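so my prof wants the structure for this chain in the tokens format not the other one, which i didnt know existed until like an hour ago. anyway here's the sequence
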Amino acid sequence: MPTQEQHTDSPALPPPPIPSIRRPFFERRSGRILLYSTAGAFTLFLAVFGFFYFRYERMIDRRLAAGPFADTVNLYTAPRMVEVGDPLTPEELVVRLRRGGYTTEPGNTIGWYRITGDVVAVFPGRDSFPGGEPGALHFANGRITRIVSLDDNTDRSQFLLEPQLIANLSPNREKRRLVGFSDIPPVLVDAVVSAEDKRFFHHSGFDIFRALKAAYIDVKTGRKQQGASTLTMQLARELWLDPEKNFHRKLSEILITIHLEFKLSKRQIFEDYANEVYLGRHGTYNIHGFGEACRAYFGKDISQLDIPEAALLAGMIQRPSSFNPYRYPDRARERRDVVLGLMRDNGYLTAAQYESAIATPVLVTPATAENTGMQYFTDLVNDELQRKLGEKERLTRYVYTTVDPDLQDAAQEAVNAGMTLVDAELHQGGDGRNPPQQPQVALIALDPHTGEIKALVGGRNYGASQLNHALAMRQPGSVFKPIVYAAALESAIEGGDDVFTPASTLKDEPTTFYFDSQAYRPANFRNHFMGTVTLRNALAHSLNNATVELAEEVGYSRVVAMARRFGLNGAIRPTPAVALGAYDAAPLEIARAYTVFANGGDRQEPAAIAMVRGQDGAVVYEHAGNPMPALDARVNYLMVSMLEDVLKYGTGASVRARGFLLPAAGKTGTSRDGWFAGFTSNLLCVVWVGFDDGRALNLEGARSALPIWTEFMKRAARVRPYGDVHGFAAPSGVVTVEVCGSDPDCANPHSEPFLDGTQPVARHREEYSDRTEEPPAEAAPPQATSGYSIVPLAAAPKTTADPPPGPPAEPATRLPPGDVAPNVRRSPPSDPPRKQ
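here's what i got, hopefully its the right format
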């Protein structure tokens, strides 16, 4: 039966709606636009990123291939030769080796060493000083007992030690001392990562957690006070980027950081960072790297750092000027203690180590103790590099200087001790005319046979004054007088009407000298005049009137010509003032001039550079001494014998009283300043003391410069080979004759050297003055001045030091034409320096 539904008419139901199909977003137009835009932007980003990345990659790889510090120049001292029996300990040798750049790593290109008990094996590297060989040095009781070559296992008597590194100089007056990662003590690594980047060894160049934390603190405090740069990012900035802060620099920093992390190991990155980080200024140099900072602030090698010192250096990284321990010791200590706390929190220090470290005061070496003289010497080397190498200077990598570090230390110590005495002299019982400012000083020591400068101090404090007083022009005073006497004695070579010998006589008495319509009366010290004196005694006692008389008789032009041959400057003129050293000369010029006396009559040019090598190790420049004949060897010997008497009984006699007893010769000098120039058979030293503004020192050379010279030479004598000196031997053509002097009984005859052919034919003038016979023609001597009347040595007053400065010369007065006065001579147109 059909159902009701079947019979019911009803409209048909519409079909169910077909659900719309929603297309994926990126198939729709808007999605495609976004997708293509994003892809385009990403592609553009990759293109830009790739462009800059590969650009920086090439730049970074080039610098890394050459070495990140390839534009620096290494300055070294002269090498040192040691011998079996020399006093030296293994510890002292290791210090010397490390100062030369040696480490314990066999791959070190300078060299490496190994310690086994009391034996130190030394292995020079490919970049070491030429001429070295591997060797083993054996020690016992503080001395070298044996030296064995490791090339052929045979004994050696000597061993050449590597030159010590003076400084690693970069453009913009940067100073650094390169170290390897293995040289850095772990305590310093711990301090640096605690203070700057504690996850350094675990992240890939970026510390996300630190960045987020820094951002949170900056937002919370409302100001930017937190840094998020990692050590790698800091290195990227320091080596390749400008200090300006902008978006471009930050992007560049990120790109360089990525490449550094990809290219270098963490140890390499830390090593480069340790050599580049800026750590303040010392003197006029910027200190870069922990190696140089250790020397500047603590006076020690980086391997010797302790915990408080490591924390102090790590703390300075944030703001080197603000935390400078010299200027702000309290701030530096506070920052150091913060770093110590971070080291403890990071597990690098125990509680006991932390408590001990924070209880330690901030101890830094005195600001002037880091061999200020070496900085003056470094400036001198830079000048010489530019002068001698010219365009080749850009090829320079290794500069081996002439300075001897032991003599340099001796020079600095002698200057410090001597200037303390000078200060005391000026402020104790003086005449009250000297203001409280400190006088300055210069000391130059050189090998007179090669011209190599072995020590140089150019002032008291390089940080306070960078003026190298060794190059400053000052009146030399009586240290010039030997040139006058040399010109006189040379008359025996040239011949003529007047021939001078050391025994020739002069008048030392009050005299008015007339020259160029000018007249004045120079005074001796204390107005003391000695009457008739020999040339020898006149020089020994530095008599002013006698010296001016001698210069007049010799001829001022001949004196100036002799000064030129001695290497003095062209400003010296042929006037009477030249006799007393009134024309300016630099201490280094005086040192050059005195090489003539110390080198048998040949002049040597002072040199600060021994050898220069380029990046590839090739020799770019090498110093070769070039002796220039200036004085006949026979005349030179006479001069040296006269200068020896200056130290025996003349104005320099206090050299002996102060304990320097080795064979030596020299001359004091007093103008407004104090001078002393002297030498042994293998070392020449010149000392100057005076004020920068030219004020009178009011201390003669024997009380200002001579004590410094003596102290230095005593210290130098303890350094091999400078203590191995000998007397001055007479060359062929010099004869020694006994002369009597004015004593008719000839009770005190003494020996006097002469050029063969100029000696007297009898011991006493009365014995030959009326002779009529002539000697053989080939031996006929020229007529010497004043016969050969000799003042006996016993008649000369004995002095142990220069007397104090006497009154100034009387002012010049103009004489009417043709006016003649008793004892009138021709002399200087200006006030001459006083005699010492």
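also thought this was worth mentioning. Residues 29-66 form the longest helix (38 residues).
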